[in-house]
Design brief:
There is one protein chain. This protein has 273 residues and is mainly beta. It has 3 helices and 19 strands. The chain has a 4-stranded antiparallel β-sheet with strand order 1-2-3-4, with no helix packed on it. It starts with a helix and ends with a strand.
Length: 273
C-alpha cells in the first residue's frame, strides 16, 4: 500500500540520518560497531561507497565476491518462467516439458507437478492469497490449478496463438493473459468466462500486468509499444511509443496506477492527464 511504501522511504531516510550523525561523532574514530564493520566486506553500491568513506579506520578489503546461490532447483529441462508464492515459502516454475512444478524454498524439494498442457509452459504466477496458480502455454490455453492439491480448476481457451504472459488481479478474482494473437484477454478466475478482449497491438503481446488497485492493465508488445487499458471497460487509456525494439516486460509501480514501468528502461506516467 501507499502508506507502507511511505514508511519504507521514511525508514531509509532515518537510517541515512543516523549514519551521518554517527560519522560526525567521536565514536567513528574508535573501533566500529559490528554492523558498521560489515561495510568493509559488503560489495559496493554507490550508497555503500559513500558510507564507507565516512569511516576512515575501516580496512579496505578487495577481491571478496559471493557467488554461491541460496538454492538451486533441479528441474531437468529448460525453465521459461518462475514466481514466488506470496509468503515466500514456495516457487512455481513453468518449463519445456509442458509441466508446472512447485518447489519448497527451504529444502528445494518438489512439492507438486501439474500435468495438463500439451506444449511448453510460457508463464506462471501465484494468486495473491497463494491458493491458486495460473499458467499460460504455447498450446494457446490458460490453466488454473489448486496450489495445494495440484487439481486443475479452470482451463481458458480463447486465444488463437501461444499465450505469452499471465497474471492475477490484486484481489484474485480475475486473470489477464497476453498472446501471440496480438490480444490481451481478461478472464473470471472462478467461472472461466472471458470478460474482456483488448485489441490494439499489431504484434504479439509479450507481457501483461494489473495495476495495484486492479483498475488498469498494462501490456508490452513486439510492436515496440506499451499500452494501458481500463480493466473494466477494455478502453485503451494510453499508448506509449518510444522503443525501437520489442518490449519484453512491463509492470506497474507499487505506489499505484499513476506510474507504469516498462522494464526495457523507460518510466512512463499513466493517468496524469
Amino acid at each position: 500500500s501507499k502508506s507502507k511504501a511511505l514508511n519504507i522511504v521514511k525508514n531509509l531516510q532515518d537510517a541515512a540520518n543516523f549514519a551521518a550523525y554517527f560519522s560526525a561523532s567521536k565514536a567513528a574514530l574508535s573501533t566500529p560497531h559490528l554492523y558498521i564493520s560489515a561495510l568493509a566486506t559488503c560489495a559496493g553500491s554507490e550508497l555503500l561507497t559513500k558510507w564507507k568513506s565516512q569511516f576512515r579506520l575501516l580496512p579496505l578489503i578487495k577481491g571478496l565476491k559471493v557467488e554461491t546461490p541460496l538454492l538451486v532447483l533441479k528441474v531437468g529441462t529448460s525453465v521459461t518462467s518462475v514466481a514466488f508464492s506470496p509468503d515466500g515459502t514456495q516457487i512455481v516454475s513453468g518449463s519445456y516439458d509442458n509441466s508446472v512444478q512447485v518447489w519448497d524454498t527451504l529444502t528445494g524439494k518438489q512439492v507438486q507437478k501439474f500435468q495438463g498442457h500439451t506444449n511448453l509452459v510460457t508463464s506462471v504466477a501465484f494468486s495473491p492469497d497463494g491458493t491458486q496458480i495460473v499458467s499460460g502455454s504455447r498450446d494457446h490455453s490458460v490453466q488454473v490449478w489448486d496450489a495445494l492439491t495440484g487439481k486443475q480448476m479452470q482451463k481458458f481457451q480463447g486465444h488463437t496463438d501461444l499465450v505469452t504472459s499471465v497474471a492475477f488481479s490484486p484481489d484474485g478474482t480475475q486473470i489477464v493473459s497476453g498472446s501471440g494473437d496480438h490480444s490481451v484477454q481478461v478472464w473470471d478466475a472462478l467461472t472461466g468466462k472471458q470478460m474482456q478482449k483488448f485489441q490494439g497491438h499489431t504484434d504479439l503481446v509479450t507481457s501483461v500486468a494489473f495495476s495495484p488497485d486492479g483498475t488498469q492493465i498494462v501490456s508490452g508488445s513486439g510492436d515496440h509499444s506499451v499500452q494501458v487499458w481500463d480493466a473494466s471497460t477494455g478502453k485503451q487509456v494510453h499508448k506509449f511509443q518510444g522503443h525501437t525494439y520489442p518490449v519484453t516486460s512491463v509492470a506497474f509501480h507499487l505506489m499505484g496506477p499513476k506510474l507504469c514501468l516498462d522494464l526495457m528502461t523507460n518510466l512512463y506516467e499513466c493517468g496524469m492527464l
